Amino acid sequence: MPSSFLPDNVPLPTITYRDEIIALPAGADSAWFDDKGLPMTTQNSSKSKYIVPWDPGVCDKTASDAFKMIKGRLSKKKRRYKEEIPRVAVDIPFPSSDDQSSITWLGHATCVVRLGGKLVLTDPVFSPRCSPFRFMGPKRYTEPGCTIEQLISAGVVFDICVISHDHYDHLDVDSITQLDKGGCVKKWYVPAGTKSVLMGVGVRDEAVKEMVWWEEVTDPSSELKVVCCPAQHWCCRVPWDRNKRLWATWVVKIGDSRFFFGGDTGYPKNFPLFKMIGDLHGPFSLSAIPIGAYHPRWFMAPAHTDPKNAVDIHRDVRSKTSVAIHWGTFPLADELYHEPVTELLEHQAGEDFVALRIGESISSGSKIDCQVHLQRLLESGKKNA
Ligand SMILES: [Zn+2]
What pLDDT shows up at residue 370? Predict the structure, then answer.
């Protein structure tokens, strides 16, 4: 077609962040960013759905995308390991000194973080499946590091619990109900629109704080500073509530100790989201960063990081010690559980970014031999193949 038939070139919207001009894709609006260039919590024009302001629609899928993905999955031989990944006994009630931060991985995105003597829980999922149904849906192939009954009987009380978003592998109402009834969580922090889900299963109004991106509060009882930060993701619990709730990553700070919870996110292609989080709130003593559920890449990449992206996030947010999450627990994508760990090993360049065994803890700043650590997981995976 001759170029004269094309409409005049409409310049792409831009924003400026720290003297860098960033072009946004067509359909984005620079009004969705604040005067410093930070993305604000953004909804569509009818205020019915949240959107990703730096790349609207990036996580949307067509029915034909879903069909192609399922067809590809069915055409492949199902690969599964016969046994679980290695586990170690959880050291309940998570001892640590006030001046040392530590993190314990209980499986998927469920972590216990000790920060300045306070106790933080992330995305608690202890149920056998991550699904709206108890009889079908992705079934865990590794048991959680401990049970909620063990936490209750040990008298564990988490100062705060942060929840990244409403997907079933991150927000499990059975686990929330049990933890709440057992008096295990003093205060829940959730992204905008999510409070009603918790209150719907009996959590008291005053025990839940709903937040939007970049909002920062001091938890009244623990003095922990809690910051809701952006993520590139989407939300849905039933077919008619897509993106009616917000998705987030979280920063938790006290004194010099800082924790970044990556929850579940994609890595923006042309937008420095994690550098922004690092600039504002880093460097972090500890981070939990997702490495799994990334195959097939063409389908998964907008909403899920792969191990290379995860290492990029570790660098962008300036994390001292990072722990791999969102792998080794639920069969959510086409990769086998050990593959994210293999790739994590390939993309590291001497960073302290480790894949723990289920139930294992690590302290911030403890010198980790990641090669040895990751190799041990891989060896165990081969034995079980
Ligand atoms: Zn997830």
Answer: 63
CATH number of the domain that residue 106 is part of: 3.60.15.10
Residue 102 within a domain? yes
Q: Which domain holds residue 206?
A: 74-384
State how far the Cα of 13 lies from the Cα of 270, in Å rounded to an integer.
Answer: 13
Residue 212: how many other CB atoms lie within 10 Å? 16
User: pTM above 0.90?
Assistant: yes
Q: What is the CA(152)–ligand 1 centre distance, in A?
A: 26
pLDDT at residue 1 is higher than 50: no
Number of domain units in the chain: 1
Residue 167 alpha carbon to ligand 1 centre in Å: 7
Give the integer Cα–Cα distance in Å for 289 and 323. Answer: 6
> For residue 340, what are its two tokens?
């994210």
Token pair 């500073």 is found at 225
30 pLDDT above the threshold of 50: yes
Rounded to the nearest angstrom, the distance between the alpha carbon of 286 and the centre of ligand 1 is 20
Q: Which amino acid is at 131?
A: S
- Give me the pLDDT at residue 134, please: 86
Asked whether residue 199 is assigned to any structural domain, the reply reads: yes
CA of residue 97 to ligand 1 center, whole Å:
31
**pLDDT category, 263, cuts 50, 70, 90?**
very high
Q: How much distance in Å is there from the Cα of 144 to the middle of ligand 1?
A: 16
The answer to whether 227 and 234 are in contact (CB under 8 A) is no
Cα 221 to middle of ligand 1, angstroms: 30
- Does some domain include residue 27? no
